[in-house]
Amino acid sequence: MMDRPITGGQLKDKSLFQDSDGTAVPAKSICHSCSKLKIFLGALAFSFFAKGFSGSYMKSMSSQIERRFEISSSIVGIIDGSFEIGNLMVMVLVSYLGPRVHRPKVIAVGCLIMSLGAFLSVMPQFLMGRYNYERITVTVDNISTSVSACSPAASGAHPFTDATETPSAMKTFGCEKTTNSYLWLFVLMGNLLRGIGEAPVMPLGVSYIDDFSKEENSAFYIGLVRSSGMFGPTLGFLLGSFCASIWVDIGVVDIDAISINPKDTRWVGAWWLGLLICGAVNFIASLPFWFLPYSLPKEGENENLKISHLPVQDDCKVDPPAQPQLKFSEAVKDFFPALKKLFGNPIFLVYIFLTILQYNSLVGLITYETKFMEQQFNVSVARAIFLIGVILLPITILGMFLGGFLIKKFKLHITEMAKFACITFIVAYLLNLLYFTCSCEVLQVAGLTAPYSGLKHLSKNSFMASCNADCSCKLDQWDPVCGDNGITYMTACFAGCKSSTGTGKNMVFRNCSCVEGQGHGLGNSSAVLGQCQRESCTKAFPYFLALQTICAFILALGGTPTYMIMFRSVSPDLKSFAVGIETLGGRVLGGLPAPIYFGALIDETCLKWGTKTCGGSGSCRVYDTKAFRNVYLGLIAGLRAGCCLLYIVLSVLIMKRFKPDGKEMTDIKNTERSTSKESATANKNEILPGARTSEESEETWYLFSLRSCA
């Protein structure tokens, strides 16, 4: 440091600060620290946007990934959970290191890793070749262009092809590349890398802002960054909707010749296209952080520098904060007493169990929401994703902000917040039970859920009937057609169709013997490609969507007060530790297992599995919609019933501990008045449990929104 006086002319040439690597920082650069802080704020806001954008897009593409790789819902759950695994692998280390590392550069590395993970997930698209969806084998009439699905020689005939494959390609593709069955591991590893890369963004970014901004500006900056990041999930779902409506091999095949549409369970959208965009966005997000310094002078502080008798007029100048020196042995020694103190707090203990159950219900709901809409209400995956991004997500964000506004506006005490959160959750839960009334009939599939025409009862797996006994149909095929009688047949062969007209999506099968029994004259029965539409399901969907929107808003309204309960019920010195324990418990016991067991139970409701090119079952083609609804909604309702019970217990505990007219309440108010005149350091030792400064309240009501949208 300087040990001699500096004249005014020398000020511009002398170094006042040193960076972490010992290099001198000119005095004139001190003023630029304020602008650098603003640059950091903008860069961090964009990185929050980028990670929310990528995370929501991956959630929206779960159905497309399931179909492209012909995997079950439980494996999709494992892929989804790999993000949590990667995040948890480094979260504790990153949080512990904190200011001991060059935070901007670590965030930059994290964004690059997220970008690498997105690009790695795209690799299978270029290794697997074109997507060949499941179709029936038909014979071509030598005299005309008519094709016959029902023929004794069907099993040995040449397959009917469309634009997605050619006979030569089929010969070379075949079962040679059996490793294609495991290419979904690229997506899993890419998602794992995304989790690793995202870990440092929030803790290091928020701590960097808090260290170098004014105390009165810190909460505003953090809230601004988080609010900007909330646009990411909305745009991610919109991009997912767009990509899901585009054929997976866009630009390679003739789209007009494809015989399926986005409502078909074999349709695969361009899932990889959005990942390229996500990777590029994350790469761009990393660039500004490489040019930001290790540390900055404290914003706005006006301290005298050690310059002999020289008045300094710049408000930005201040000594760099001393880096904390914490020995590892001391950290370990304090860890277990702090943990014991936290879990010795009954309010915090109940709150942790509540968080775990909420994580389970929320993650399970989000992961399989698009599949549920598709199976129950004849809604294409692209439309379901679009509705989530345009309606449900914005209304949820609005509810969270309104909940935080009510806390600040009415200055709710912890007892009032507990009552408010409990009431809103129970109301939302009761409305949630109305989901079961939005019932929809099971898809009538001949041989699966409905008997063939002329038969009164359905016997198990009665795929064959007298009307198609001579057709040599393959039992493992799924290329549904809708007959004139309103019944769906697994293939045109099972419908007994003898001829057809048209090509591609416009193909109509004629002379279908299994359809003739429903009052149709001989030779007049027909079937069209695709499943039969269920009109009652389509009519029920708007009511379901309106109910879901109301429930999402009410849940979000009480979400912010719920999250604030944790901050106001633990000691000030344990707040950061409490956040870490809450995040760890929620992700390990909620975010990680929920997609897996939700997916495994949903798989149990499958009626017809697809078949891979090389044999073996692929993704599910059709579900028992009634069983699917009971499993999916039943799991959510069961988890939230446990949440209702814990909310009541939590409210009782809080009202007993924080009595509005009791001595503790009076002490809290007195402490709050005194803390407005003291420094934040002194507050840690003097504020009683339950006390909060207005700045802290303004900051923390944003936290719940990040957890829900990340």
TrEMBL record:
Feature: compositional bias, Basic and acidic residues: 665-676
Family: Belongs to the organo anion transporter (TC 2.A.60) family.
One cellular component (GO) term of this entry: basolateral plasma membrane
Organism, scientific name: Bubo bubo
Gene Ontology biological-process entries: monoatomic ion transport; sodium-independent organic anion transport
PROSITE patterns: KAZAL_2, MFS
Principal subcellular localisation of the protein: membrane
Domain Kazal-like: from-to ranges: 461-516
Transmembrane regions listed in the UniProt entry: 75-94, 106-127, 230-250, 270-292, 348-368, 380-406, 418-436, 541-565, 577-598, 631-655
Name of the protein described by the UniProt record: Solute carrier organic anion transporter family member
Keyword terms, alphabetized: Cell membrane, Disulfide bond, Ion transport, Membrane, Transmembrane, Transmembrane helix, Transport
Localization, UniProt: Cell membrane
Alphabetized GO MF terms: bile acid transmembrane transporter activity; sodium-independent organic anion transmembrane transporter activity
Major facilitator superfamily (MFS) profile domain residues: 40-659
Region (Disordered): 665-697
Pfam families assigned to the protein according to its UniProt record, in alphabetical order: Kazal_2, OATP
